[in-house]
């Protein structure tokens, strides 16, 4: 996923539209905040904060005087997030403030796109305060773990990508995602000195939600990349009109919470 595509007004607009209509990211954000055990008094860093779903879910658990630092590199997303959280204690930044440490560092629905996972986890881990935690979430399918079918005549929701692929308007990804799996992610946490717990969120993804999600330029680029992002919405809409809207599938989200082992100072008696 290219950062340039996230920094496109159509992306910010479609993300806002999607989160307004569907609870996919809202539910995933709440699960992440629960996995991170965010509580009043915590200083929270929300990395790759998008338009604020994870920051808003954090605020639900924080106290009145707490602040979320939301780091979002794509200006279009960051500005949309700042508007969405106007009047709320969210401090939007284009990059992580240097030298700062946080009780909770969270990264929702982005880890696979940020670079080699060991480097990304090490970087995020560097901002976790002593006794703090790092929590990340991602669809388990991105770990190579296939989802199970749901219901309707298209229970894997495979029909839309099939129809779009048939149009032959795709483009090879500029930066193909490096393969990721459970072992690599768990190892990355361990290498950064964390003991890690994995939990799972299972939710239904409806055909309608999937079609709306497919209008996001970073998502549809491999299938419709030859078209300008503005023109892809109508193309997806036309393809969606021929699909079974009663269809849905299960979607698993993997949540990893790393807690740093406290090293107790060795007390040597001089008696
Ligand atoms: C699916 S959104 C998740 C946003 C939010 N955490 C949520 O759960 O709603 C992924 C975010 O990752 C960011 N992102 C993608 N690639 C990135 C990169 N290479 N460097 C920094 N941020 C990136 C995007 O700008 C986008 O806001």
From TrEMBL:
The keyword Nucleus does not apply. GO terms for molecular function: methyltransferase activity. The keyword Methyltransferase applies. Keywords: Methyltransferase, Transferase. GO terms for biological process: methylation. This is Methyltransferase domain-containing protein.
């Amino acid at each position: 996923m290219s950062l340039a595509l996230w920094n496109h007004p159509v992306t910010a607009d479609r993300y806002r539209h999607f989160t307004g209509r569907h609870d996919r990211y809202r539910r995933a954000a709440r699960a992440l905040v629960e996995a991170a055990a965010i509580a009043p008094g915590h200083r929270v860093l929300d990395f790759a904060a998008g338009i604020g779903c994870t920051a808003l879910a954090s605020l639900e658990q924080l106290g009145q005087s707490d602040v979320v630092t939301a780091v979002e590199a794509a200006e279009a997303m960051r500005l949309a997030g700042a508007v969405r959280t106007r009047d709320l204690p969210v401090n939007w930044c284009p990059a992580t403030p240097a030298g700062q440490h946080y009780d909770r560092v969270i990264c929702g629905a982005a880890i696979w796109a940020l670079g080699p996972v060991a480097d990304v986890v090490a970087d995020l881990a560097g901002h976790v305060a002593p006794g703090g935690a790092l929590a990340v979430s991602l669809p388990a399918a991105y770990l190579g773990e296939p989802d199970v079918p749901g219901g309707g005549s298209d229970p894997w929701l495979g029909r839309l990508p099939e129809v779009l692929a048939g149009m032959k308007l795709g483009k090879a990804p500029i930066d193909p995602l490096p393969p990721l799996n459970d072992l690599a992610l768990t190892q990355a946490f361990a290498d950064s000195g964390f003991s890690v717990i994995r939990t799972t969120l299972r939710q239904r993804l409806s055909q309608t939600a999937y079609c709306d999600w497919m209008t996001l330029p970073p998502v549809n680029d491999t299938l419709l990349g030859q078209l300008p992002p503005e023109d892809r919405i109508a193309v997806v809409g036309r393809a969606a009109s021929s699909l079974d809207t009663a269809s849905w599938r299960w979607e698993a989200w993997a949540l990893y919470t790393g807690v740093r082992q406290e090293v107790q100072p060795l007390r040597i008696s001089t008696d």
